[in-house]
Amino acid sequence: MLKRWLAVPALLMTFAAATQAAECPDLLQGSLPKLRAKESIDLCQRFAGKPLVVVNTASFCGFAPQFKGLEALYQRYKGQGLEVIGVPSNDFKQESKDGEETAKVCYVNYGVTFTMTEPQKVRGDDATHLFKNLAEQSSAPKWNFYKYVVDRQGKVIADFSSLTKPDDPQFLKAVEQALASKPE
């Protein structure tokens, strides 16, 4: 009898994990290593049900000053649930091969407090799952600082080129639309 009672919590945990996986959008399946940390970010656990801005970054790109605008955006809307995910990439040959240098640019030079990952592939067959899914829903990044606005269900509302600054009215409109989206 005791064995049966011990099996109940295990079954409940299995059911809870299956339910969580079912609720997690495909976009957020998997994890990414956090920049200059010994931890990985479980995308589903951390971001499911939240509006997102996902941007591929590069430390040595002429658009790097957009880090300041992205941080200002994050500070402005984080109280409403917005999350910003910065994913450094060397796909366009403008990112350091040294994560420590990337971290210095993000954290020290620009004061970034939003989530940053270790450098990842964001284009082509080797792209991380997150960016493969973004590309399937809209298009692959055409350059560094390509921005995606994602609603609470994991659907891309809009994507914006590197030329679009984080305070652009159309970009802000898409962010506010993502904030207004209801969780499933």
TrEMBL record:
Q: Which residues form the signal peptide?
A: 1-21
Question: Catalytic residues?
Answer: C61
What's in the keyword line of the UniProt record? Answer: Oxidoreductase, Peroxidase, Signal
Thioredoxin domain mapped to chain residues: 12-180
Give one GO biological process term. cellular response to oxidative stress
Name of one Pfam family that matches: GSHPx
Q: Which InterPro entries match?
A: Glutathione_peroxidase, GPX_AS, Thioredoxin-like_sf, Thioredoxin_domain
Which domain of life does the protein's organism represent?
Bacteria
Q: Output the Gene Ontology terms for molecular function.
A: peroxidase activity
Q: Which family does it belong to?
A: Belongs to the glutathione peroxidase family.
What is the designated name of this protein?
Answer: Glutathione peroxidase
Q: Organism, per UniProt?
A: Pseudomonas prosekii
